[in-house]
Amino acid sequence: MPSPTQKALAKVPGPLRPFLVQHRSLVKFLLVGGTCFVLTLAINYALRFSICQSKPVVALTIATALATVVSYLLNRQWSFRSEGSHKEAIPFIVVSALAVGVNDLPLLASRYLFNLREPHVSHFTQEISDFLAGMILGTLVAMAFRYWAMKKFVFTTQRADEELQDATAEPVGPRH
């Protein structure tokens, strides 16, 4: 009986399969990250247009922290397939706290170092710079940091038998 991974790989064009198999944890990490990015974006702007109107860094910090909880659950169960123990919880919290700070740094610099805020710039320029610095640049830098730190310090014990099984399984689907 083919696994769900094997079924999904059968639908991928042949030349991409080796790349996806070789980098499957990165691909899964990026899918989880994309989902959490959308969640962060939604929470951030919900807060910015309601209770955190004058506190964009606070809104981004809260949004990132909430999305981090979702990220932990998804990465633990799917991306890195950690074994059943919760020994990675404390390193995850430390890495995530550092990553929230890394994520906030570009927005802090944009707002308070480069003064890209009202009254120094127009409201439109402020919003564009906040989005580019906080949501785009901050997320990209924090994502690279998280991926490296999660593999290095948090999810260090993957189920070797499942990894080996996925990598060596017979491809499902029509053979050419």
TrEMBL record:
Q: What is its main location?
A: membrane
Transmembrane stretches, by residue range? Answer: 26-45, 57-74, 89-108, 128-149
Entry's InterPro entries? Answer: GtrA_CellWall_Glycosyl (IPR051401), GtrA_DPMS_TM (IPR007267)
Q: Which residues form the GtrA/DPMS transmembrane domain?
A: 28-155
> Where is this protein localized, as stated in its record?
Membrane
Asked if the Swiss-Prot or TrEMBL record annotates the protein with the keyword Transmembrane helix, the reply is: yes
The lineage's top-level taxon is Bacteria
* Sequence similarity: Belongs to the GtrA family.
**What name goes with this protein?**
GtrA family protein
Organism expressing this protein natively: Kitasatospora nipponensis
